[in-house]
Amino acid sequence: MTDLNTKVYYDDDADRSQIDDKTVAILGYGSQGHAHAQNLAESGVDVVVGLREGSSSRSAAESDGLRVATPVEAAAEGDIVSVLVPDTVQPAVFEQIRDSLDEGDTLQFAHGFNIHYNQIQPPEDVDVTMVAPKSPGHLVRRNYENDEGTPGLIAVYQDVTGDAKEEALAYSHAIGCTRAGVIETTFQEEVETDLFGEQVVLCGGVTSLVKQGYETLVDAGYSPEMAYFECLNELKLIVDLMYEGGLEEMWNSVSDTAEYGGLTRGDRVVDEHARENMEEILEEVQNGTFAREWIAENQAGRPSYTQLKDAEENHHIEEVGRPLRDLFAWSDDGDEDEETAEA
Ligand code: NAD
Ligand code: MG
Ligand code: MG
Ligand code: MG
Ligand code: MG
C-alpha cells in the first residue's frame, strides 16, 4: 500500500475530556444540525439547539428530546457554537450572535465558505474550527445509530486556546466521525476543493455529461426511454463500482468492448478544451469570482438561480424520467439502502 501523506485520526486519537464538560450550541436543525445535535446528546454531551421563535424546526428538535432556545440564548450558553444554518444565512445569524460569544469559546462550521471569503469576521478571542462530515446529515445520523462512522474533515482557522484541534477531534468523536476516520485540512483547501468538485465533476460536470449524451441520442432519432437508461439510469451502477474499488473495479466489471470503447473515446469527450475550462473554473473559485457572484445572486433574490432551476426541472430528460421511474421497481424502496454492485 502506498503511504498517504495525510494522517487519519480515529477514536483513539480523540480526547473526549475536550468536550465532555462543555455545552454545544447547535444553530439550525436541518441536514447537519439534527445529526450533530442528536449524536452529541447521545454521546453524553450537553446540547442546546438554537432556533428562531416560530421556526418550523423547533418542534422537530423538541420531539427529538433536545433543549431548544433562540440562537442568541444558545450561543451565550454554548462553549462551542456550531453554525449549521444554510451558508447563505450564516452571515446574518452571526451578526445576531457575535456578542454572545465569550472569550475562549469556539465558533465552529461544517463548511468554510463564509470564513474563507470573509463573509464572517470572527472575534479575535475565540477559536474558529471546522468539523465537516463528508456526507449528508441523515447518513451521519444513521451511521451513528448503527454503530458505524462517517468520514470527516477537521480544520483550525484560529486557535486562541491552544486546544482548538483537540476539541475538534473530540467533537468528531462524539458525532461518530472518528469511528470512520478524520483528516485535517484548512478552511481554504476545504472550500476550494469542495466548490471545484461540485461544479466541475459531481453536480455540474455529471449533469451536463448526462444531458448532452441524452440529447445526442434523442436528436439522432433514438427513443428517449433508451437514451434515459443509457445516459442517466446506468450511471448509478458505474458509480457504485468506482466507489467500491476505484476505476479499476469499474473497468474490470464492464465488458471488454465497453472497456476498449471507453478507454479510446472518453478523452475525446472530456478533452483538452474541457480541461482548460476546468482550470478557468478553478481560478474563479480561487480568486473569489464565484463567491462574489453567488453572494450577489442571493442579495438580488436569486433571479438566475430560479430561472436555471426551472429550466433544469423542465428538461426533456426529466419529463421522460419521471413517468419512467414510476414504472420500474428500483424507485419503490428508498435509495441508500439498496444493494450496491459487488465485484
Ligand atoms: P440545511 O439547509 O439542511 O439546514 C437549514 C436549517 O437552518 C433549517 O432547518 C433551519 O433550522 C435553519 N435555518 C434556515 N434558515 C434560517 C434562518 N434564516 N435563520 C436561522 N435559522 C435558519 O443546512 P445544511 O445542509 O445542514 O448545512 C449546514 C452547514 O453544513 C452548511 O455550512 C453546509 O455547507 C454544511 N454541510 C452540509 C452538508 C450536507 O450534506 N447538507 C454536508 C457537509 C457540510
Ligand atoms: Mg458562550
Ligand atoms: Mg463536498
Ligand atoms: Mg459544497
Ligand atoms: Mg450499455
Automatic annotation (TrEMBL):
SUPFAM superfamilies: 6-phosphogluconate dehydrogenase C-terminal domain-like, NAD(P)-binding Rossmann-fold domains
Catalytic reactions on record: (2R)-2,3-dihydroxy-3-methylbutanoate + NAD(+) = (2S)-2-acetolactate + NADH + H(+); (2R)-2,3-dihydroxy-3-methylbutanoate + NADP(+) = (2S)-2-acetolactate + NADPH + H(+); (2R,3R)-2,3-dihydroxy-3-methylpentanoate + NADP(+) = (S)-2-ethyl-2-hydroxy-3-oxobutanoate + NADPH + H(+)
Active site, renumbered: H111
Residues that coordinate or bind NADP(+): Y29, G30, S31, Q32, R52, S55, S57, G137
Keywords carried by this UniProt record: Amino-acid biosynthesis, Branched-chain amino acid biosynthesis, Magnesium, Metal-binding, NADP, Oxidoreductase
Annotated positions binding substrate: S255
Residue span, KARI C-terminal knotted domain: 186-331
Span of domain KARI N-terminal Rossmann: 6-185
Pathway it works in: Amino-acid biosynthesis; L-valine biosynthesis; L-valine from pyruvate: step 2/4; Amino-acid biosynthesis; L-isoleucine biosynthesis; L-isoleucine from 2-oxobutanoate: step 2/4
Binding positions (Mg(2+) 1): D194, E198
Gene Ontology terms for molecular function: ketol-acid reductoisomerase activity; magnesium ion binding
Pfam family, one: KARI_N
Presence of the UniProt keyword NADP in the record: yes
Binding site for Mg(2+) 2: D194, E230, E234
Cofactor binding notes: Binds 2 magnesium ions per subunit.
InterPro entries: 6-PGluconate_DH-like_C_sf, KARI, KARI_C, KARI_N, KARI_prok, NAD(P)-bd_dom_sf
Cofactor: Mg(2+)
Function, as annotated: Involved in the biosynthesis of branched-chain amino acids (BCAA). Catalyzes an alkyl-migration followed by a ketol-acid reduction of (S)-2-acetolactate (S2AL) to yield (R)-2,3-dihydroxy-isovalerate. In the isomerase reaction, S2AL is rearranged via a Mg-dependent methyl migration to produce 3-hydroxy-3-methyl-2-ketobutyrate (HMKB). In the reductase reaction, this 2-ketoacid undergoes a metal-dependent reduction by NADPH to yield (R)-2,3-dihydroxy-isovalerate.
Membership in a protein family: Belongs to the ketol-acid reductoisomerase family.
Matching NCBIfam families: ilvC (TIGR00465), PRK05479.1 (NF004017), PRK13403.1 (NF009940)
Protein name: Ketol-acid reductoisomerase (NADP(+))
